[in-house]
Design goal:
The complex is a heterodimer. Chain A is an alpha/beta fold. Chain A contains 14 helices and seven strands. In chain A, strands 1, 2, 3, 4, 5, 6 and 7 form a seven-stranded mixed β-sheet that branches. In chain A, helix 1 packs antiparallel against helix 2, helix 6 packs parallel to helix 8 and helix 10 crosses helix 11. The longest helix of chain A is centred in the first third of the chain and has 23 residues. Classes of the chains: A alpha/beta, B alpha/beta. Chains A and B meet through helix 7, helix 8, helix 9, helix 10 and helix 14 of A and helix 6, helix 7, helix 8 and helix 9 of B. Bound molecules: zinc ion.
């Protein structure tokens, strides 16, 4: 459904572009207006009719704003820091200190590429243990210098590779979970795209969890889920429905704290608006959390996860 | 070839415990039958009777293969007799995603295994030292971690922290429980956070990895032990071998993700044969008792 509407939209966009140079006659102006009206209606129809599978598609959209876009809009003087100090630099994790409205903070996020070359560099946003150990290093550094941590989650999951296993993928993720669980500074996590399994949760132990409307957060990718439960990864659309992985579902479950609305058709259609909304919420949360005592901060974080799925 | 036949026996012993009375006769008959049954070793295909294996800690005398054993049996092998006191035994989860058929599946497994969930928690003494113990049982939905498992483990860890007790967790798990979706994922954070708090009090946590320990369990509490032990030959990893092979499009080397492989790569402290496990655990517990006086 979404893909159908998107291709119609693309056709209109092409027509509009084509008209741009020689659209001065009254008839052409009229036609242009009509096309723009159609475009708007189409976008609204898209926004209204999104299924969970559509949201998965949007969450993975190659044009969707990534962590670097958020960093350049939201922060000033971002200083990228590299390396896990043990083995190597994992480019799929981007992090370092920056200013947020004059306050020093630590930013950590998962990077995806927009093309093949970038994707090879960022390993399709799938960190290895070195990436997670870099997260631990940067988080401890943030604690030492009393900087709030802001994480941007966007990964299909931790990389399931031979070297990743050899160097302790599980141990590295477990390390992130335990370190972030009691770090003595505010932690704010924002799911901007895909939040896939433990590899996403490793950046997701936070005082405040925010999700973009069309981002997803799940125990496993829908394909993996279908393949485990039904031995058939092509049933992923069905899995999307069952898994309840949309921002709306997670808000209803009480697992996340806020959903940021996206423009019709997804964040990539008007990134500026999304950045602005993230900025407003971020300011509110940083103000709130920096006013809280350190003990209270870690206790609140403990309690938050303690009560997930309360029995 | 079925190393899991013992579950029937447990089902009946459990039902006896629960109901007593009429069931008892049936149990005895069942036990006799299963004791004389021959079980093939999955590794060397020699066959042994259950009675023989039970005397040998369920380890193949020919090739050393460690059979998967139930949580009950595990506790019997390491704890002082009669010392185990179970906690939160009847704690069960909900069906948070309303996953079709999930409740029914749990009911069937409860009947088949005599377990209420895939973990048993409680306190016991090992050579007179008291500890909190949690044991996952791979017969119950692959020992997967849903809300109830996360909750039972967290309560056990919190109890250990409150009572200043050491903690021992035997893992055997396929990871997160898919049917509980995101709630299952969040148990990784919950259990890890609890263990972090227990550790901050200066208390000991021994993690024992048994076959298999994978996924979200490896990526949370199982990897956070002050001391990490593993049984010989146990499969231990984050991603499953099949997923890795599909990703890298090549065959994995022999012994990849085995306990021996992890030892070599620095992720576990010691491989412990089942028959030595009780002694080693007791020694570790003794080494971590507070003692201020030189005694000899
Ligand atoms: Zn054998």
């Amino acid at each position: 459904m979404l893909k159908e509407l998107e291709s119609k939209l693309k056709a209109i966009d092409q027509e509009l572009e084509h008209m741009a140079d020689n659209s001065h006659s009254p008839a052409q102006v009229l036609m242009r207006r009509q096309l723009e009206r159609n475009r708007k209606e189409l976008l609204e129809a898209i926004a209204k009719s999104l299924t969970p599978a559509d949201r998965v598609y949007l969450a993975r959209h190659p044009k969707r704003p990534g962590v670097r876009d958020y960093i350049s809009y939201l922060f000033t003087d971002f200083l990228e820091l590299k390396g896990d100090r043990g083995c190597k630099e994992d480019e799929s994790i981007l992090g370092g200190p920056a200013f947020y409205k004059g306050i020093p903070v630590t930013v950590i996020g998962q990077c995806k590429g927009r093309n093949l070359e970038e994707n090879l560099k960022y390993n399709f946003g799938m960190p290895g243990p070195e990436g997670y150990r870099k997260v631990i290093r940067l988080a401890r550094q943030a604690e030492k210098f009393d900087r709030p941590i802001i994480t941007f989650i966007d990964t299909p999951g931790a990389y399931p590779g031979l070297e990743a296993e050899e160097r302790g993928q599980g141990e590295a993720i477990a390390g992130c979970l335990s370190v972030l669980s009691d770090i003595r500074v505010p932690v704010i996590a924002i799911v901007i795209g895909e939040g896939g399994s433990g590899g996403a949760l490793a950046l997701g132990v936070a005082n405040t969890i925010i999700m973009l409307e069309n981002s997803i957060f799940s125990v496993l990718s829908p394909e993996g889920f279908a393949s485990i439960l039904w031995k058939d990864s092509s049933r992923s659309d069905e899995a999307c429905e069952l898994m309840k992985l949309t921002a709306g579902d997670l808000l209803d479950f009480g697992i996340i704290d806020y959903v940021i609305k996206e423009p019709p058709g997804g964040a990539h259609r008007d990134p500026g608006q999304v950045f602005q909304d993230v900025a407003i919420l971020l300011e509110q949360e940083i103000r709130k959390l920096t006013a809280v005592g350190k003990e209270e901060l870690t206790d609140a974080r403990y309690k938050k996860y303690r009560e997930m799925g309360k029995l | 070839m079925n190393p899991f036949k013992e579950r029937k026996e447990h089902l009946f012993t459990l039902k006896t415990m629960q109901r007593k009375g009429k069931q008892v006769k049936k149990v005895k008959k069942q036990e006799q039958i299963s004791e004389s049954l021959l079980v093939n070793c999955p590794k060397c295909t020699n066959s042994y009777s259950k009675a023989t294996l039970s005397k040998l800690y369920y380890v193949c005398p020919n090739c050393g293969y460690h059979y998967k054993i139930s949580a009950f049996r595990r506790i019997k092998l390491i704890a002082d007799p009669e010392s185990f006191v179970e906690m939160n035994r009847f704690l069960t989860g909900n069906n948070p995603l309303s996953f079709p058929g999930y409740r029914e599946k749990l009911n069937v497994l409860q009947d088949e295994t005599g377990l209420v969930e895939s973990v048993i928690t409680g306190t016991a003494t090992i050579k007179k030292i008291k500890a909190v113990i949690a044991v996952l049982d791979s017969r119950f939905l692959m020992g997967s971690m849903g809300v109830a498992v996360g909750e039972k483990i967290t309560r056990a860890v919190e109890y250990a922290a409150e009572e200043k007790l050491p903690l021992i967790i035997f893992s055997a798990s396929g990871g997160a429980r898919m049917q509980e979706g995101i709630f299952s994922l969040m148990q990784m954070a919950k259990t890890s956070a609890a263990i972090q708090r227990h550790g901050k009090k200066g208390l000991l946590y021994i993690s024992v990895l048994t076959n298999p320990t994978t996924g979200g369990v490896t990526a949370s509490f199982a990897s956070l032990g002050d001391i990490i032990l593993a049984e010989p030959g146990a499969l231990i990893g984050f991603a499953g071998p099949r997923v890795i092979e599909q990703t890298i499009k090549q065959k994995l080397p022999e012994g990849f993700q085995s306990a021996e492989y992890l030892l070599e790569h620095g992720f576990i402290d010691k491989i412990v044969e089942r028959k030595e496990c009780r002694d080693i655990l007791a020694l570790i517990l003794q080494l971590h008792e507070k003692r201020n006086e030189i005694t000899c």
